[in-house]
Design a protein that fits this description.
Layout (H helix, E strand, L loop, with lengths): L1 E5 L3 E7 L5 E4 L2 E4 L11 E7 L1 H11 L3 E5 L6 H13 L2 E3 L10 E7 L5 E6 L20 E4 L6 H13 L3 E4 L11
Parallel strand pairs: 1-6, 1-10, 2-8, 6-7, 10-11
Antiparallel strand pairs: 2-5, 3-4, 8-9
Length: 182
């Protein structure tokens, strides 16, 4: 099956260190880092993230032909996303080199195996525009919208594109909670 995926791509970095000490304040544990401190990590792991990237991996591992329409930058984490696409054998589409932002990144600081403080940079996928849609193959069997585009015009263009090419559409319902109610 030939599947097009539209969605975000990010890299999750899990930083684990005994130096991350949780301090209790008002019944809440906080990781406190002294300014100017250099902390040694016990482990640092990079993993793929983002609805589009993860969906593409799942479909590719089921031996489908996959094309991912996403937005990443020409930076370190963008190159990680490109490596994942190559390793998992799917195609990246879109104007991925030209954005002036950074590739979406989530950094997880773990004080122990259970507690995490998460720092998030996201928003690259919001730069997806209607012009990027023409990079989707017209011979797709399915168009999977893993993350809803920020602009309604982009979503409308995706639906029209699928309809005009007789492509079935699936939408990940987890993204519906971000959609404004009319």
């Amino acid at each position: 099956m030939n599947i097009g995926v539209v969605g975000s791509s990010s890299i999750d970095v899990f930083a684990v260190s005994k130096a991350f000490r949780a301090q209790k304040e008002d019944r809440q544990a906080n990781i406190v880092l002294a300014q100017g401190t250099k902390l040694w990590l016990d482990d640092a792991i990079n993993e793929p993230g983002g609805g589009g990237l993860l969906s593409s991996i799942v479909f590719a591992r089921q031996d489908h032909t996959v094309s991912l329409l996403t937005v990443i930058a020409n930076d370190l984490f963008g190159s990680e996303v490109r490596s994942v696409a190559e390793e998992e054998d799917f195609t990246l589409l879109g104007n991925i080199q030209a954005i002036k932002s950074h590739t979406d990144t989530t950094i997880h600081l773990s004080a122990n195996s259970q507690d995490q403080t998460t720092m998030v940079f996201e928003g690259s996928f919001n730069l997806l525009n209607k012009k990027d849609i023409i990079t989707l193959p017209s011979d797709l069997d399915w168009l999977h919208i893993a993350d809803l585009p920020n602009e309604k015009a982009v979503l409308s263009k995706l639906v029209k594109y699928a309809k005009s090419n007789n492509i079935q559409i699936s939408i990940n319902p987890r993204t519906l909670h971000n959609t404004p109610v009319r």
